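Sanity check. The docking grid for xanthosine-5'-monophosphate depends on where the pocket ends up, so I'm generating a full predicted complex first rather than guessing from homology. Inputs follow.
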Amino acid sequence: MQNNVRPADMKRINIPELAEAFIAEQVKEVREQVGDRKVLLALSGGVDSSVVAALLIKAIGKQLVCVHVNHGLMRKGESEQVIEVFRNQLDANLIYVDATDRFLDLLAGVDEPERKRKIIGGEFIKVFDEEARKLEGIDFLAQGTIYPDILESDGVKAHHNVGGLPEDMQFELVEPVRLLFKDEVRVVGKALGLPVSMVERQPFPGPGLGVRCLGAITRDRLAALRESDAILREEFAKAGLAEQVWQFFTVVPDMRATGVRDGKRAYDWPVIIRAVNTVDAMTATVPEIAWSVLMTITDRILKEVPSVCRVLYDLTPKPVGTIEWE
Ligand code: XMP
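Predicted complex below; grid placement will be based on this.
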């Protein structure tokens, strides 16, 4: 039975030396728990699952089987980074499933936000389950459960995230970062050699770009969303804002606006920039971004993203507006 209570005298892991000691201890524990058996992990590329993957690769190498499901709603370059880091650099046993068409076909015409979330979450479990059943001799399931998950939701990882355990699958759990807070997980991730862009990632909802491509998702708007989001992230990073702003992304509504392009009238999509600062995501403020940065982003989106004719900056604090648009 694993211990799910953080000991009162447990040191905060805030320096590399403490992270090294934690890693050594977990490697030993995982080896004792798992022996020569196999462990399965759903690797989304988020901070928690990536750190667990790196830790388990160190402990048990190829006995860990990672499954990365690309639901087609990832940000630009994210699935590619998972493959590059885990398969190419860390030599992980990684199964990559491109399920884009499955998800987008199921979501076609669905415009109600909670239904979209349910479909994405449900399909994710189905795809993961199908992959797991193809594998033989798996006894353990690793999860990136962290301490706030235990405190807030009875130990169920990311209650509002996609993923989770297929219900009839009886695996023993391996949860090596379950007693850590998020900032500690990041320190451990860095000590394990994961790229900073992976361990310092801003929060990204489980349903991914699915809740930022408003209304019924279409492939053209999803492409505009992915490209504009990549431009925003690039320009925020260049301006030194990536570390200062808690969460930032673009949104593409399901409503057209008029414009003129090459002397002709266009009827294209708007892109909304959303940027917020917050401590706990319950309330949020909107940072004042330099006009020059906003103009550079606007120019680039209008030049580089086809079918976008307008760029807006959302000034709404939470409350009243939530951080996401759906
Ligand atoms: P809201 O929009 O409620 O967002 O102000 C608060 C934080 O939660 C994230 N968020 C989600 N995360 N699945 C997730 O894993 C979801 O369905 C979801 N909806 C919102 C949001 O990005 C913000 O950080």
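Relevant for the grid: The beta strands are 38-42, 64-70, 93-98, 138-142, 172-174, 247-251, 257-261, 264-276, 308-313.
Also worth noting: Residues 113-134 form the longest helix (22 residues).
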